Amino acid sequence: MTALATPAPSARRLRTRATLLAVLSEHGTLSRAEISRLTGLSRSAVSSAVTDLLDEGLVSETTSPAPATAGRGRRAAAVTLRRAHALVLAFDFGHTHVTAAVADTTGTVLGEATAHLDVDNHPREVLDAAESLARQALDAAGHRLDEITALAAGIPGALDTRTNVVRAPSTLSQWIGMDPAAELGRVFGRPVAVGNDAEMGARGERAYGTGHTVNDLVYVKASTGIGAGLLLDGRIYRGASGISGEIGHIQLPDTGTWCRCGNRGCLESVASIVEVRRRLVHVLAPGARPGETVDLPPLDRLADVPAAARVIGEAGRTIGRVLADLVNCLNPAAIIIGGELGQAGDPLVHGIRESVDRYAQPAVAEAVDIRATRLGLRSELYGAIDAAITVATTRTH
Ligand SMILES: [Zn+2]
User: CATH for 6-81, among 3.30.420.270, 1.10.10.10, 3.40.50.1000, 3.20.20.70?
Assistant: First the structure.
């Protein structure tokens, strides 16, 4: 199996930024002119990179004389690296991708790298890829592996919190019986937190997303599978064995479609991104032969295409039928929709809203705000960053 690293959209910018971070890390405080001399980068490249780093809060700039220019009578602005007290690594494992990110304890992402590969069927290769992606992300950030204090990962499968192993039923058929935290601990030699992807999504939304002030929220990862991460009373709720939130396998009335779990009529057998894409191909490319690959526009551009919006709205109403029961049980303040299908935005959210209003008790329906994520596909990654920071800042040294 080949893991193809995705070329970073702004590889040159990331390199410049890594060079600057490295030179500041080595020298402490430098003027822009000195950075230019030490790195061989043009003054304008240094200037725009410094502006980026200032915007991100990674450096500060003062007008006191920089050491090497002092005494020449010129007051040069001095750029200093702001050091967060620890660095963490975070991983988002999807079914077909792995992303690694290096962040500091303020949650600022300093570098990241993604590879597309078959995560479900090749656990060994995935762990190897995770190590190489971590090194790429560290290179982009201008840091080394030995500077990392802790790491965390979200995995797209059922994880038994009593034993830490992946369990069936799970899409990760080749991972069953594996202990991802122990494997990652062996690879990186640091404390590790692991959770399922929907749980990480809920954490990410609470820490960095639209759920920032919300203590009772449900994050729905609507992708190949459909799972919910539950944050209740300000805490992640995992259940007795860690497998709460498997809403993708709640049965719908009047649906007989077979699900990969062996039952019929499960939510994800009719409203997964795979099913929605299949129907979108049907309405957007009616001439396509069965099995033919059709490039669809991104889901967030389909709100104004009536037939497509109808397909997405229908998936929303179906998911909302199940969420209405969850709303009746849990009375959350917010439901945040993420995952690939979550990128569809308004038509999906309106469909969900319609069913929640129709099927949940009026008082609980009224109390819940239903929104699409604003973190794109990064809720899970930000959740892993939050989990890693928790490990880094609470463990005893
Ligand atoms: Zn099922």
Answer: 1.10.10.10
Question: Are residues 139 and 111 in contact, defined by beta-carbon separation less than 8 angstroms?
Answer: yes
Query: Distance, CA 249 to ligand 1 centroid (Å)?
Result: 4
What is the rounded (10 degree) CA torsion for 170, 171, 177, 178?
Answer: -130
The architecture in CATH of the region 87-202+379-394 reads: 2-Layer Sandwich (3.30)
Q: Which pLDDT score, from 0 to 100, does residue 246 have? A: 92
252 alpha carbon to ligand 1 midpoint, in Å? 11
- Side chain identity at residue 301, one-letter code: R
Q: Residue 217's pLDDT is what?
A: 97
Q: If DSSP codes are grouped into helix, strand and coil, which group holds residue 300?
A: helix
User: Measured in angstroms, how far is the CA atom of residue 122 from the centroid of ligand 1?
Assistant: 23
Is this structure's pTM higher than 0.90?
no
Count of H helices and E strands in the chain? Answer: 13, 14
Per-domain residue ranges of the chain: 6-81, 87-202+379-394, 213-372
- The pLDDT tens digits of the residues spanning 12-70 come to 777 787 788 778 877 778 999 999 999 999 999 999 889 888 876 677 888 754 455 44
CATH of the domain spanning 213-372: 3.30.420.40
Compute the distance from residue 225 Cα to the ligand 1 centre, in Å.
Answer: 9
Q: Which amino acid is at 265?
A: G
